[in-house]
Give the backbone structure.
Amino acid sequence: MAGPFTTVREQVDTTPQSIDRTEYTTCYMCACRCGIRVHFKNDELRYIDGNPDHPVNRGVLCGKGSAGIMNVKSPARLTKPLKRVGPRGSGEFEEIEWDEALALAEDWLGTVRKTDPRRLAFFTGRDQSQSLTGWWAGRFGTPNFAAHGGFCSVNMAAAGLYSIGSSFWEFGEPDWERTKYFMLFGVAEDHDSNPIKMGIGHLKSREAAKFVSINPVKTGYSAVADEWVGIRPGTDGLFAGALIHELLKAEKVDWDYLARYTNAPWLVIQAPGHPDDGLFVRDRDGNPLLLDGKQKKIVSALEPDSSPILVGSVDIDGQRTVPAFHLLADRFLDDAYAPDTVAETCGIPADTIRRIAAELAHAAFEQTIELDIEWTDWAGRKQDKVIGRPVSMHAMRGISAHSNGFHTCRIIHVLQMILGSIDVPGGFRSKPPFPRPVPPGPKPAGHNVRADKPLEGMPLGFPTGPEDLLIEPDGTPKRIDKAYSWEHPLAAHGLMQMVIHNAWKGDPYPIDVLFLYMANMGWNSSMNVPGVLHYLTDTKEDGSYKIPKIIYSDAFYSETVPYADLVLPDTTYLERWDCISLLDRPICSAEGPGDSIRHPVLKPDRDVRPFQEVLIDLGARLGLPGFVKEDGSPAYPGGYPDYIVNHERAPGIGPLAGWRGELGVDQGRGGPNPNQLSRYIENGGFWEMPFTEAQSWLKHANRDYLTLAHRMGWIPSPDRIVMQIYSEPVQRFRLAAQGYGPALPPEEHRARVEKYFDPIPFWYPPFEGESSGDAYPLHALTQRPMHMYHSWGSQNAWLRQITNQNRLFVHPDAAAEIDAADQDWVWVVSPFGRVKTQIKIMHGVEAGTVWTWNAIGKRRGAWGLKDGAPETEKGFLLNHVITELLPPRDGGFRYANADPVTGQAAWYDLKVRLEKCTPAEAGATEPMFERFHRPDLADPATDGDGTLRYGASQHAEESGKAEATPRDWVGNREAHAHRGSGVRPGHGNRVSKDGQE
Amino acid sequence: MTSLPAKTGKKLGLVIDLDICVGCHACAVNCKEWNTGGHSAPLTDSDPYGAQPSGVWFNRIHTFEVVSDEGDSRTVHFPKSCLHCEDAPCVTVCPTGASYKREEDGIVLVNGDTCIGCKLCSWACPYGAREYDEDAGVMKKCTLCVDRIYNETLPPDMRVPACVSTCPAGARSFGDLGDPDSDVSRLSADRGGYALMPEQGAKPVNRYLPPRPRKTVAEEALGGAGLTPVADDKAGLMARWLDKILSM
């Protein structure tokens, strides 16, 4: 009998049968592609954790991934195809059957294709199937295709691919194991997710590795950095340029690395006013040339064993030429990049800049790593070691989202190159299928759009000169987003953020169908939300919409859904097939290639279909070449899994690289294997192929690697890849602006192209800061919290308990300026508009910067949220005060608020001032948008009384097993993952069933 | 009113590294996900999609700034869950014996069958680590994943608290802090692990590792100085480099 003073023994079952079944698939709570284990109890989702053997996350899982159950059980899930019956934006729909939905889409799209395929604009969000969606657009025949990258990270991708042949995040990673100095530029605050956390945890737990974060805001990673450099937004290029300045002055340069692996010695023609000015001088075979200092003669730069010089001039055929490095040194030795000059602009003391330069030099040249690895260089010369400069860097949104981001990112890559720290031990390592030639192929397709015909290739690509632009003879853009036009010549990911505006304006031409997938363009993915909602609903004189038809596919009832005419409901990530493909953005690490799948571990409980399945179906219905057989029947009758297995982009190369060929033993190249997906499922959902040591380093110039990469179909030839400190493609555009070459920009664009197409990177102030003046003294930025980064978090019952209202974080000095206290309400005023929010005073922010969490603010009626949700009443978007267009120039012309080279949306250029609200104004955010009709969606998790008791029914029965002995578990997960112990579920393909590779 | 065991066989607990915790909430969410179907199921959430969502969480991350007199700030991410105290006041205060400390491993648990929801334990806990489930009318709390750590039905890599196995930064460790030779005890000793608010006298088992000193290897080697230019100006440098012949 229990009573006071007695401990009652509870019968705790320490060995319950908690899990009946476990499936291995790939997470999609953000874009990081971690491997997950999905555990079931009584056929219900019980628990999701990280796959210990997965190369991306090695068993860990972030807050988003851990909240996957609530994503799958969200009341915001769409349940059936919808046809709009009320006005756009009202949210009034009728449910229709799939047959009707697909027939409608086929009708709308078919009419466009038969007349003018350009009048379809097909843009997707953060989906990971762009090798399929892009191919579909090309087969349809429209050049108007792109995805999320144009407003996210194209500056990083383009700058990397035009400089070093790989790029930050997707195509490279720091050597966390060996680096001794890690610089993180502008990560806001998570990009990417688990790999960086694992890396930072690992790095900081080693001795003698320093972590420096350059960021205006001290949260997240910056909070644990050894040194936080609170830089002024948009000045990172100037800061990195000053580091280059200091390193050059002290000759802290990896000369041999520059000579061997970059185009530093290539001779550049110096003939102003001549059509070849600034191009590389080339021999008859087109090879660039260099001056061999020993032989005192000009030789091909592609020949091994020469002795190049890097400075000085030499006349060739009467033309003065200088090595590319000469021009680079001339630029960065200028006083404009001296620490004393840049200190005030960057908000960083000159002594700090000088010290960091010295620390970089110390790490690179005094703490050099030498690995005794035998490898063969591009010229066939045996090497017996790899020299590592253990300085690594990672950069993301804070660099990317400025109108100077392309050049800033190039400056950071130049810094890496002069330190000799790319693809070396301790440095920044490229991930296969990169490096690729600089820039990679192919070029964008869309020169020749014809009714009923496919494009000549994929819509997105990499121009190498003005002749590759998609423009009419008079210079008018051929694409709806004006990508690859004189306005944004290297827009390698398109300009998704401009599509709705341009389609509304009919500039450069009107469209008939806007087809969007998984992109919240009616809310947090657009600049100028009020304007965008106007563009979506504005009508012509006859009362019809200016954007006539809108098809939207998503799994959830977002703010964009009510603006669609036809809604195609998608599944959640646990209910679908997917491939995380080498043709797109795979799961490779620097240690080797890998790819993975999603497979349906749950059956949808509503009338929804995976978008890719629908797209393939539509392709067949429309008779698109590639989607139908010769007899007109569907080429992939089995839908998306059929496509994943049987589609070949080139002979033997398909979406998945593992278990190819009839016998299922080929890797990379091989015919389709009907059992391929089964093999992936058996092996934990992923495939990987570790490089040999000899293939692992200096991949640009590593014969074993290049041979393999060529065999795998990643690069067109096994030739050496030369990194480009000096960009000749960029110079070709400048020459055109100067009046040379076959394609010249219209007069009004010439000055801009000439200025910003500088073949050597340079820093210039972000545009909006330039134009907004003193009335808007503060920079305004956004970050996404780690538990919602790249995700759909606000609808998630668990994650929204962590964050459901965003405030504006303000430095005490800036708050004092307007006499505001913590939690006061303020207006955030930009030249373009104003938005109301509460403030939170914070010391760890650059004093001239304010910031907030992005995409917390939601619109009434969306995401299954109930009335009164803090997200809708107090949460706000900075998007409302960001304009998508720069101020008018002479003649009224307005450029996009974007990087002039790449078209990257310049979110972070925003300048604002704060005005304290009157007491009457406090309490709720503004602008407040009308609440749209909320559909009657199912809430599969919450009980009838409005309470969520998830798991109540999952109480596990006794297993009767004896207790295991608990063991210590210390720190970083990897040490505890038992790898290579033979194939069992989740253990990939590393070891075969009988224990052999 | 409930007695504590005179001695526990082990002192199982967590060691949390504040040097590398980036405040990502992975531990908190993964804990909730496991435990909502675990020993104390469910971890109820009220008004999950409404104006005031609130639920039971065994582990919460507190983020705050510490500002020095000089104006330097540090952003601190501080995960907090039950510290499984040796002299747990939440146990001794319990009128029914529902709140108890296990003799074999020192884990503090609540017996949901005998808890009357009086909340005395949550008042007694100096750390605010107890979570009252309004809906169930009982107190709930971190179980140190007692249904995982011994559980032979799970693969070995899961026999660890969910917060530990999921932590991306590797900032969380688990083991027997009563054994001075255990990995976690040594880790704590090496890093100056400390008990939270020892003056409260509860003798918490969990330990926090303070941020490491800033890494200043290069600064020390260089004495804080910048690099020394090799020439006075650009012309001088370019002149030096004119004769520089490299090899490929």
